[in-house]
Amino acid sequence: MQLLVTGGMGFIGSNFIHYWLKNHPADTIINFDNLTYAANPASLQDCSHNPRYHFVKGDIVDEVAVDQVMSGTDVVVHFAAESHVDRSIDNPTLFVRTNVLGTYVLLSAALKHSVKRFHHISTDEVFGSVNRLDPQDFFRENRPYNPTSPYAASKASSDHFVRSFFKTFGLPVTISNCSNNYGPFQNPEKFIPRMITNVLNNQKIPVYGQGDNIRDWLYVEDHCSAIDTILNKGKVGETYCIGGLKDGSTNLNLVKTVLQVMGKNIDQINYVPDRPGHDDYRVDWTKINQQLGWTPKHTLEEGIKATIQWYQQNSDWWTNSKKEAELFYQKLNNYQHTSYEKK
Ligand code: NAD
Ligand code: DAU
Q1: Measured from the CA of 251, which atom of ligand 2 is nearest?
Q2: What predicted TM-score, i.e. pTM, was given to this entire model?
Q3: Fewest C-beta atoms under 10 Å: which of 221, 222, 279, 306?
Q4: Percent of the chain with pLDDT over 90
């Protein structure tokens, strides 16, 4: 089988490619990625001589390039996106272009080339926010979409296009809406690697607001196995929510876990202005668990320990992207302070 993986030089895509090459020895993968700031080719350096792996540099918005790369594809696994909420607050246009238009271009090409499955990687953020005070409030597949950030709105829109290609044209699609991933090869602009690399660099951990926002966390390898399960056993036209915890965790609890494993105390926390439109998420992953038999294998504590160890041992991988991430945050903070002053 030939897979077209979009965005395979990013965090989850590169983990997925490692996972798939290891677990599906008869398959070949084409990784189509235009190498934005979020890509790190070093993540797949070890695959560069693997005859079952090919990298093609290209933009998912480019119809000609997408048409060419789609030829011969059996299955598309679509990760490529602008993925960072804070950047979507800074520059929403790029999110519309890549996440909405790019997904549409891929769907059109997949239809033309009669691919057997188009799996769309989406996010729990399309649902908006759970009620923090109601511990029974979870995102489930039938919850109405209510995105709040430009990132979430662009992903919600792409989900609607994917469903429309199933209903209108019969393209065999599946969608997964997953919670926050963490693990090796994640850009240090995201919370968990930002915390770990800050501690390793003797810097404080910036916590937005009071640290009381709620997230569900999933070790990235478990996300890869969930996608594998959906590709194997999932029903065409269906959506599956994927999560890792039974209940959500506050950011503050997560910080404390990381600090404890790294042998530091809460003096390392620096409370900073909150993210505008900051949501809370809890995910109910009963459907994929009961209907397809998937279950995450890593506890949060195990996953955090493995992730800390990986960042301790791979500073060459993250040093440059860390500098770039902190420059971005400097710019964002200036912008946020300016808009607070205006209010
Ligand atoms: P990432 O930002 O680490 O990587 C995105 C990749 O897409 C990069 O390699 C980038 O170069 C590529 N890309 C961006 N624009 C492109 C374009 N126009 N053409 C081709 N390639 C392009 O993202 P990630 O965290 O690995 O997320 C992957 C997918 O999973 C995204 O669709 C995201 O919405 C979704 N998701 C992420 C999480 C998470 O916690 N990270 C959770 C749920 C869903
Ligand atoms: O829920 C799935 C989503 O998870 C994915 O769709 C996104 O692609 C992915 O980036 C992630 O979005 P979040 O906005 O939740 O991730 P982030 O790592 O940016 O932030 C996690 C939480 O930590 C959030 O509540 C904001 C907070 N935070 C983040 C950073 C970077 C801080 O308190 N301090 C920080 O420095």
Answers
A1: 23
A2: 0.97
A3: 306
A4: 96
User: Is residue 229 over pLDDT 60?
Assistant: yes
Give the distance (Å) from ligand 2 centre to CA of residue 215.
8
Catalytic: which of 33, 59, 86, 124? 124
Enumerate the domain spans of the chain: 2-184+217-248+277-299
- Return the CATH number of 2-184+217-248+277-299, one of 1.10.260.40, 3.40.630.30, 3.30.70.1170, 3.40.50.720: 3.40.50.720
- Which long-range contacts does 17-21 make (Cβ < 8 Å, 24+ apart)? 17/44, 17/47, 17/53, 18/44, 18/47, 19/221, 19/224, 19/225, 19/228, 20/224, 20/228, 21/47, 21/50, 21/52, 21/53
**60 CA closest ligand 1 atom index:** 19
Smallest-distance ligand from the CA of 39: 1
Q: Please give the pLDDT value at position 332.
A: 86
59 a catalytic residue? no
- Mean pLDDT (whole number) for 235-239: 98
